[in-house]
Design a protein that fits this description.
single chain, 9 strands, 14% strand
């Protein structure tokens, strides 16, 4: 049993993960407008942080130039933390990320988070286009991470480096490791960094990864105790029926990915059985097993169960909802349930 077995959903911070979704019939410009509107609402409602994710060559995600969108959101808000969930470090030279986030921290001091992943966030052909070659496959992620951290804090480096991140050097930018398996969980623990687990698309590894992170954790000058955040699909509406209908957009997104068909976010449907086989429905249930969908009471009960099991220190909610007003309302309901203010 965890040390603290009485943690309540009102005890922990809640945050927002946004992919700047591109809905059918809309443009990336619409997505960025909606992203800022959601970020402003999240700040008003008391959410802790607002993260944007790096994906490429996906017609339903507009946040590919993640650092630029972070700046857009930070400029339009005043206090909520803004960051990456995450930057896929193998796609970039660490110096470039140090300079970009050094610039962001200089523009919006004390508000920038740098979440890092080691997956490409895309297909192999696009990864090649991004990197020009595939020698950086994620296997050298610890070395890339060390190089990046050295740019911010040269005292971590072995010897003097003639290459400096300007801006970047000397700035205190929280670095998080993101993961959907045990690899980053263990690395985050050994380095004493905060860890965020992608339960929204890797539900079965959630508890083992968090337990591995806590077992591996060594106090550092960043953290004296572990800080584990869990990313969850959370779609709330006034009734269970309406929430379940809204969630068919998310189900269609994953169904289309399974079929190798990449299209913008699709409108909800009345019944997924009309468009998917029994096998596909079972695969969706497996992939989206920890999704929390329902009315306020249903969402609250499911959240309490997740928190009891995971003892998460923070929860980050993502709502891939076709209708922007319904997406805003989902976050309003979640804030009310968790008494964020």
């Amino acid at each position: 049993m965890p040390e603290n077995d009485t943690k309540q959903i009102t005890d922990i911070p809640f945050s927002v993960l946004d992919l700047s979704p591109i809905a059918e019939g809309r443009t990336p410009a619409d997505s960025f407008h909606n992203t800022l509107e959601l970020a402003q609402l999240a700040e008003k409602l008391g959410y802790n942080r607002y993260w944007l994710a790096e994906h490429h060559n996906m017609p339903f995600i507009a946040s590919s130039a993640t650092s630029v969108v972070i700046s857009h959101v930070a400029a339009g808000t005043s206090k909520i933390r803004v960051g990456s969930g995450g930057i896929m470090l193998p796609n970039h030279a660490p110096l470039v990320i140090a300079e970009q986030f050094g610039t962001l921290e200089s523009l919006y001091p004390g508000r920038i988070d740098l979440g890092l992943g080691r997956a490409p966030g895309t297909d192999q052909l696009t990864a090649r286009a991004l990197r020009r070659d595939l020698r950086s496959s994620g296997e050298d992620f610890p070395e890339q991470l060390a190089e990046l951290r050295n740019y911010f804090d040269p005292s971590l480096a072995q010897g003097y480096s003639h290459v400096k991140a300007i801006p970047g050097e000397g700035l205190n930018i929280p670095i998080w490791l993101l993961g959907s398996s045990g690899y980053s969980a263990q690395l985050a623990g050994e380095l004493g960094l905060p860890f965020a687990f992608a339960s929204h698309f890797s539900p079965h590894n959630t508890l083992p990864a968090i337990q591995l992170y806590r077992r591996s954790f060594k106090p550092s000058k960043v953290l004296d105790k572990p800080h584990a955040m869990v990313g969850l699909n959370i779609i709330a509406a006034d009734t269970d029926q309406e929430a379940e209908r809204l969630a068919t957009t998310l189900q269609q997104q994953f169904l289309n990915l399974m079929r190798g068909k990449e299209v913008p976010l699709q409108p909800p449907v009345d019944n997924m059985n009309d468009i998917a086989s029994d096998y596909e429905i079972a695969a969706l249930e497996n992939q989206l097993g920890t999704s929390i969908v329902g009315s306020p009471q249903t969402v609250k009960e499911k959240l309490e169960k997740v928190l009891d099991e995971s003892q998460a220190d923070e929860i980050m909610a993502i709502a891939q909802v076709y209708d922007h007003k319904a997406r805003l309302h989902s976050y309003e309901i979640l804030a009310e349930i968790t008494q964020l203010k």
